[in-house]
Specification:
- By secondary structure, the chain is an alpha/beta fold.
- The protein has one domain: Alpha/Beta hydrolase fold, catalytic domain (Rossmann fold, 3-Layer(aba) Sandwich), CATH 3.40.50.1820.
- It is 38% helix and 23% strand.
- Helix 3 crosses helix 4.
- The longest helix has 18 residues.
- It starts with a strand and ends with a helix.
Length: 228
């Protein structure tokens, strides 16, 4: 696996950065990793690296570039407040635009003939769900997407297979929200939802190793089938 930082054309003379993780043994497909509210942090880069270890070309674009390019926040009280302030003014349409620009760059690479998935966490988890209904992607994985329950009018317009992961101790996606999501999506044959007992919000980057391993195994199997 090799890594690099790259630049993506956003149009109108604007560009934004992305972390890229290139697999040693590529399977021919790519995953766009969508950040949490803290930016493209070491945690997010590690998620991209996991996908590369599993054979996927992984891109983790900077979704907050319109506010502060290259933002990398910690979980300190001050940084959490800053991240939440950005979240309040963040526009989902900007995220979908950046996903489309990233997918376009990947597909334009010489020799790339595979399919492109998105996998997002927290804010990125909601964007992954929205991308499944709005963007030109071939599969979507949502880890504890916050706010999906407010976007369920899109449930019948999903364009690609979708997998969702939640922890049952997640205060940002509590049981009523998870149940509402499950009720809205249970008739969709292309949707799979997993709930992890005892897992909290952020478990895929900061949770129990067993939960991370199981979610990774499920995600990899899902993508291999969805992108085949």
């Amino acid at each position: 696996m090799t890594t690099r930082n790259d630049s993506i054309d956003a149009g109108h003379g604007q560009h934004f950065g992305t972390y890229v993780s290139v697999p040693e043994q590529p399977n021919g497909h790519a995953v766009i990793v969508l950040q949490e509210i803290f930016g493209v942090t070491p945690h997010i880069r590690a998620v991209a690296d996991r996908f590369a270890e599993d054979g996927f070309l992984a891109y983790a674009p900077d979704l907050f570039w319109r506010f502060e390019p290259g933002i990398n926040l910690s979980h300190s009280k001050e940084d959490i407040a800053k991240a939440m302030a950005y979240l309040k003014v963040y526009q989902d349409k900007d995220g979908l635009s950046d996903i489309a620009s990233t997918a376009q760059l990947i597909r334009a690479q010489g020799g790339f003939t595979g399919r492109v998935a998105v996998a997002g966490l927290c804010l990125g988890g909601k964007l992954a769900y929205l991308a499944a209904a709005n963007a030109d992607v071939d599969a979507a994985v949502s880890f504890y997407g916050v706010g999906i329950e407010a976007q369920l009018h899109l449930a019948r317009t999903l364009r690609c297979p979708l997998m969702l992961h939640f922890g049952d101790h997640d205060p940002y996606v509590p049981d009523p929200a998870r149940q509402t999501i499950a009720d809205a999506l249970h008739l969709q044959p292309s949707v799979t939802m997993h709930v992890y007992p005892g897992a909290n919000h952020g478990f895929y980057t900061r949770g129990a190793a067993a939960d991370v391993a199981l979610a990774r195994e499920r995600t990899c199997a899902f993508l291999q089938q969805a992108l085949a």
